[in-house]
Design brief:
The protein has 19 helices and 23 strands. It has 552 residues and is of the alpha/beta class. The protein folds into 2 domains: 280 residues, P-loop containing nucleotide triphosphate hydrolases (Rossmann fold, 3-Layer(aba) Sandwich), CATH 3.40.50.300; 208 residues, Rossmann fold (3-Layer(aba) Sandwich), CATH 3.40.50.880. A 9-stranded mixed beta sheet has the order 13-10-14-15-23-22-21-18-19, with helices on both faces. Strands 5-2-6-1-7-8-9 form a 7-stranded parallel beta sheet, with helices on both faces. Strands 16-17-20 form a 3-stranded mixed beta sheet. Strand 7, helix 7 and strand 8 form a beta-alpha-beta unit. The radius of gyration is 25 Å and the shape is globular. It starts with 5 loop residues before the first strand and ends with a helix. The structure holds glutamine. The site of glutamine (GLN) has 10 residues, from strand 19. One of its GO terms (cellular component) is cytoophidium. Belongs to the CTP synthase family. It catalyses: UTP + L-glutamine + ATP + H2O = CTP + L-glutamate + ADP + phosphate + 2 H(+).
Length: 552
């Protein structure tokens, strides 16, 4: 282990979903603002090699990295909070680790040895963590172990963490994010589940250095003392982390609790003082989340919302964040509504209600469910001059709608929905045919960062502040605008204002400003490159159009 690299493991207790990812991201931000070079690793315990083959309602958003890795939404949080650009070394799953070990065994990589779950699986985990640190030349690697302690699934990852600590005790520390419930009927915050969680972690040979006590309210002195004694923890390393209105306040709250200094002291991290210039930038940004005066109302038309009886917008996390950043940058509070595309199929009268919104977003999607509803929404936005931003599937919808209603090709469709259409305006990419024929679905889409060239003077070029230069954006798709229809669509007024450098692939479609205030779709996913302090130019332009629309 290199002397200077420190490893901070973030683990969860009691329940998942209480903010381990945001905690890891916030710790990273705090350390980065102390002049440290920080990187992060996410561990997901599932067998899947990546998140790409999972249904969004099962997994939440699939966050695509610049190298095309299909990962977990926490990777997006890391990139956004810490302004990082991560790659596949920063992400691992049980499937990935086992696959490497098994391949190595087949290649005689273990030189005839009996390959065992322990230690060989944890050793591979350790190698991956260290590699992420080495490649980033990191002072600090933050490793988030998904799920909670006590699950079968993540035992081998905890084992890896324990082994790393044994190898270099001073360089490895553990932060536990645990939940303290306040059951309504009792009316008091209970520490017992967290006590059990820490005992469980102890059984893995690990003692947390810091406990972040998540709860609806603040952790009081009395309970802090109790946890300190019963969990064998220093009192001042137990930190209250109550619910907050905005996740962007979390790094600020941590800093108020001196978490950065504490971590540096425990891990022996030598750092500069907090850089007040960049810290103030974050503070100013975080303030916007509390400004409720001027609003902008955005409708997001999706379909991956329902999980059992609950509604979650997790599948569209980066889209929501991108909308927020561009709204905050223009001093607006976004009011985002989740609307189900399927509803517009069954109740077309609902379309009129869309007039309430200042702008409409149709995000990425797969399969035929909700497509006809989406097409109605696109038509409504086009005809009623409501600002429209289509992301990937949302752009493909724009093309189909235009072909049907302007070119008069009534059965225009995408091959993904209707393989028998005579007017396949969206067709499968040449490079994808082989994959589909052989059922090779995993990691085989057109993925990751590709360049596009912008048409000078277009809405897109103006948004990027770039008179016809190149952009680099992240992709995740199998289908594309069918080249056979490009000329007809262009003659009918649609402009392809972004194309792949060889001119073959349509990356952005738009209507000119004199025809529509903002009607633009991208084959890529701009939302993956929207950062709090660097909002995305296309979202900026869209929100600007929404604000203008509101004024009318
Ligand atoms: N299903 C479409 C395709 O594969 C769009 C994908 C997406 O929206 N990410 O091309």
């Amino acid at each position: 282990m290199s002397k200077q690299t420190k490893y901070i493991f973030v683990v969860g207790g009691v329940i998942s979903g209480v903010g381990k990812g945001i905690t890891a991201s916030s710790i990273g931000l705090i350390l980065k603002n102390r002049g440290l070079n920080v990187t992060a690793v996410k561990i997901d315990a599932y067998i899947n090699i990546d998140a790409g083959t999972m249904n969004p309602t099962e997994h939440g958003e699939v966050f695509v990295l610049s190298d095309g890795d299909e990962t977990d939404q926490d990777m997006g949080n890391y990139e956004r909070f810490m302004e990082l650009s991560l790659t596949r070394v920063n992400y691992m799953t049980t499937g990935r680790v086992y696959q490497t070990v098994i391949n190595k065994e087949r290649n005689l990589g273990y030189k005839g040895k009996n390959v065992q779950v322990v230690p060989d699986i944890p050793l591979e985990v350790i190698e991956r963590i260290k590699k992420a640190g080495t490649l980033a030349k990191a002072d600090v690697v933050i490793i988030e172990i998904g799920g909670t302690v006590g699950e079968y699934e993540n035992i081998l990852f905890l084992e890896a963490a324990r082994m790393m600590k044994l190898e270099s005790p001073k360089d490895v520390i553990f932060v536990m994010v645990s939940y303290l419930p306040t059951p309504g009927k009792l009316g008091e915050m209970k520490t017992k589940p967290t006590q059990h969680a820490i005992r469980t972690l102890n059984a893995s040979g690990i003692q947390p250095d810091i406990l972040l006590a998540r709860g609806e309210t603040k952790l009081d002195e009395k309970r802090k003392e109790k946890l300190s004694i019963l969990c064998n923890m220093f009192y001042d390393r137990i930190i209250s982390a109550p619910d907050v209105d905005s996740i962007y306040d979390i790094p600020l709250n941590f800093e108020n609790e001196k978490l950065g200094d504490k971590i540096c002291a425990i891990a022996g991290i030598v750092s500069k003082k907090l850089d007040t210039v960049s810290w103030n930038k974050w503070k100013n940004f975080a303030k916007h989340a509390h400004n409720g005066k001027d609003t902008v109302k955005i409708a997001v038309i999706g379909k991956y919302f329902e999980t059992g009886d609950f509604m979650l917008a997790d599948s569209y996390l980066s889209v929501i964040e991108a909308i927020k950043y561009s709204s905050y940058a223009q001093n607006r509070k976004p009011i985002i509504s989740w609307l189900n595309s399927v509803d517009y199929e069954n109740h077309p009268a609902k379309l009129k209600e869309l007039k309430k919104y200042d702008g409409i977003v149709v995000p990425g999607g797969f399969g035929s469910r909700g497509v006809e509803g989406n097409l109605k929404v696109v038509k409504f936005a086009r005809e009623n001059k409501i600002p429209y931003l289509g992301l990937c599937y949302g752009m493909q919808m724009m093309i189909i709608e235009y072909a049907r209603n302007i070119l008069g090709l009534k059965d225009a469709n995408t091959r993904e929905v209707n393989p028998n259409s005579k007017n396949m305006v969206i067709d499968v990419m040449e490079s994808q045919k082989e994959h589909l024929k052989n059922n090779l679905y995993g990691g085989s889409m057109r993925l990751g960062a590709y360049k596009a060239v912008l048409a000078p003077g277009s809405v897109a070029a103006k948004a990027y502040g770039n008179a016809g230069g190149e952009i680099l954006e992240r992709h995740r798709h199998r289908y594309e605008v069918n080249p056979a229809f490009i000329m007809d669509l262009e003659r009918a007024g649609l402009i392809f204002s972004g194309k792949s450098p060889d001119g073959k692939l349509m990356e952005i479609a738009e209507l000119p400003k004199n025809k529509h205030p903002f009607f633009l779709g991208t084959q890529f996913h701009p939302e993956f490159l929207a950062h709090p302090l660097n909002p995305h130019p296309l979202f900026n332009a869209f929100i600007k159009a929404c604000i203008n629309n509101k004024k009318k």
